[in-house]
């Protein structure tokens, strides 16, 4: 893992940014792009949606904003398919991830989970957000859990959509082997096979494929996941929603659910039949409705 995330050269970066901008140009709702300064560099965040207003002013007690992290090596543009539904009645922040390909400009390394949390909290501070629903897909779900374990005081809730295989228990060796083989020589064919195995039926458009392909030439600089410890699970006091696809190839939903409930009895866990790791896209309407219902339930400040 590189200490500072970067492209190998300016040509590779330019190719990625062309694809990134092409995907971003198809954003389905109005937005504002923000650059937030942190101890680790500049973070690009896309802000979509507005909170409901009463009497011309935004309600202090209204819906808490939502921040959504993408899956591994993704960026804020990966949330394009979700943002229209999510931003109807609340502000949604979709950040690029420091150390992954995007429009962040990293200046200092993120070495561990404490650094991940520090970075996220500084982004929230820079946005002027005191309290947020923190959601994530796959690896992004693990990141949300990490922040919850360290700073639940800043979170209205933690929402984990098909968390990555090492978020709660050790990942299966067969899963690690699949990623290792593809990562050693990430040809288009190898990555296509990995994607079909991981998220069957998920179709990317031409611009998305170009962005993913160009992003492979980025030197990643974010720590790999490690299962949340018993102490971390106990420290995750924000309301927790975890959604799985029953056919997921990266998780054992029953084993993970048992471990979560052993330490967080109030956790809300649901397993959807007939889908796997592609769950957030395959049954998007159900997942978004479930996410929003949970967020609405926990909008009021905990006392």
Automatic annotation (TrEMBL):
Pfam families: Abhydrolase_6 (PF12697). InterPro entries: AB_hydrolase_1, AB_hydrolase_fold, AB_hydrolase_sf. Residues 79-281 form the AB hydrolase-1 domain. GO terms for biological process: acylglycerol catabolic process. GO terms for molecular function: monoacylglycerol lipase activity. GO terms for cellular component: membrane. This is Pimeloyl-ACP methyl ester carboxylesterase.
